[in-house]
Write a structure and sequence with these properties.
Strand order of the largest sheet: 1-2-3-4
Number of helices: 3
Strand content: 15-25%
Bound molecules: zinc ion
Number of strands: 4
Largest sheet: 4 strands, antiparallel
Shape: elongated
Order of helices and strands: HEEEEHH
Structural class: alpha+beta
Number of domains: 2
């Protein structure tokens, strides 16, 4: 069973989860997300906008966390709403 769950997680990480049963949004270590109740896939969530984040927004968020982009907290939130990153001076 663990092999099947691992395979489902690997597939969902590449193609995204196709299941519809999700947990309520919750925040751990300043990161909000919902979890698929069938395969365990995490879906990042914006508590401010009360919606799941798109792949583009998630990539930007992870780049900010990794230090690839240096944004202030306000600029990071604004960049999630806009089309392009707005770099802080
Ligand atoms: Zn799933």
């Amino acid at each position: 069973m663990k092999v099947l769950q691992g395979a489902m997680r690997a597939v969902s990480s590449v193609f995204g989860c196709q299941h519809g049963r999700l947990s309520r949004p919750f925040t751990i270590q300043q990161q909000s997300y919902m979890v698929c109740l069938d395969c365990g896939h995490k879906q990042f969530y914006s508590m401010q906008e009360m919606r799941r984040l798109s792949r583009k927004e998630i990539k930007r968020l992870l780049a900010i966390e990794a230090g690839a982009l240096h944004l202030s907290a306000a600029a990071a939130e604004a960049s999630l709403r806009s089309d392009g990153p707005s770099l802080a001076a």
